[in-house]
Automatic annotation (TrEMBL):
Keywords: Glycosidase, Hydrolase. The keyword Nucleus does not apply. This is Glycoside hydrolase. SUPFAM superfamilies: (Trans)glycosidases. Belongs to the glycosyl hydrolase 5 (cellulase A) family. One of its GO terms (molecular function) is hydrolase activity, hydrolyzing O-glycosyl compounds. The lineage of its organism: Bacteria, Pseudomonadati, Myxococcota, Myxococcia, Myxococcales. One of its GO terms (biological process) is polysaccharide catabolic process. Signal peptide: none annotated. Residues 63-305 form the Glycoside hydrolase family domain. It comes from Cystobacter ferrugineus. The keyword Plastid does not apply. It comes from the Bacteria.
């Protein structure tokens, strides 16, 4: 069991992990009357004050003025294991000290996550989202699952509730399927159309990001048959620089040339296991690629697990304001890129 636990806690990009089956509990029912958060004025000079509602135009994500925008930030770790970092102090520190423009709340679904403890996981997500709104940051609500097509009903209920709550809030981005692993694009596309339909049915116009096959790497496949039923949809590209190199950049370039917008909602500076093989030179090549195409990104992960992908050393404060001594080599590199 210890070996399994450590495997599941690894990075997310391209791992061929085999999750044990889990009986979906009777969860995810929307509340009888989900309150809608009224739009609040973003703080002056904040990312949301400057850019407002995000919109996909062609192969770009643009701001309210039609100008291409590139968000840069951090992804939190799986919420059921990294939940100590799901607090306002962490969000504030990332905004003030790291100058992030986006934070990703990676809500774990299986393995003790949302399917087991829906109220606790939703509470963690709402804490991060509400803190991001208060700081004027963009925030990704991520259904952090490799088997989402097996949990369509729960995902639909969850995103219906979140969309009803945050439909007036331009800060919020919905990431509806983290990393499809063995699903075909036909399967993922059908799932995405159903979930996006539920989101749009609430009146929520928010940007939606759709996972792509093979741990969100086959963006070129998605680009050959994109979702056309609904507007404001981008597609997920994930990479781990120690594993995924020019070949994946070529796939991304192909997808962009076919006219879809990409969002790198997760990437690591190391191998796809989340550990070993720190490759900052290849990470810089990826950052140059993303900058040249204005691809938004979130680095995996703001967490203190003892692995290469973590931004913080083990035992770091869970309330932010980290000194340089608390940063791992990966964390120090990414913070530098955020401050540039």
């Amino acid at each position: 069991m210890a070996v399994l636990y450590l495997t599941l806690l690894g990075g997310c990009g391209g791992m061929e992990e085999s999750f044990p089956p889990e009986e979906p509990s009777v969860t995810g029912e929307t509340e009888a009357a989900t309150p809608t958060v009224e739009r609040v004025e973003a703080p002056l000079a904040s990312p949301v004050a400057a850019n407002g509602k995000l919109q996909v135009v062609g192969n770009q994500i643009r701001n309210q003025n039609g100008v291409a925008v590139q968000l840069k930030g951090m992804s939190l770790f799986w919420s059921q294991w990294g939940g100590a970092f799901y607090n306002a102090s962490v969000v504030n520190s990332l905004a003030d000290n790291w100058k992030v423009t986006v934070v990703r709340a990676a809500m774990g679904v299986e393995n003790g996550g949302y399917l087991t403890n829906p109220a606790a996981e939703k509470a963690r997500v709402k804490t991060v989202v509400d803190a991001a709104i208060a700081k004027g940051l963009y925030v990704i609500i991520d259904w952090h699952d490799h088997n989402a097509t097996a949990h369509t009903a729960q995902a639909k209920a969850f995103f219906t509730e979140m969309a009803q709550r945050y439909k007036n809030t331009p800060n919020v981005i919905f990431e509806i399927f983290n990393e499809p692993d063995n699903e075909t694009w036909t399967q993922v596309r059908a799932y995405a159309v159903e979930i996006i339909g539920a989101i749009r049915a609430t009146g929520a116009p928010n940007l939606v990001v759709v996972g792509t096959p093979t741990w969100s790497q086959d963006v070129d496949v998605a680009a050959s048959n994109p979702i056309t039923q609904y507007p404001n949809v981008a597609y997920t590209l994930h990479f781990y620089a120690g594993t995924h190199k020019q070949g994946l950049r070529d796939k991304a370039a192909t997808a962009l040339s076919k006219g879809i917008a990409l969002f790198v909602t997760e990437f690591g500076t190391c191998g796809s296991s989340g550990n070993g093989n720190l490759n900052l030179a290849e990470t810089q090549l990826w950052i140059d690629f993303m900058n040249s195409r204005k691809l938004s990104w979130a680095n995996w992960a703001l967490n203190d697990k003892a692995e290469t992908a973590s931004a913080l050393v083990t035992g770091s404060s869970t309330t932010g304001n980290w000194p340089d001594s608390a940063l791992t080599p990966s964390g120090a590199f990414i913070k530098q890129k955020l401050l540039q």
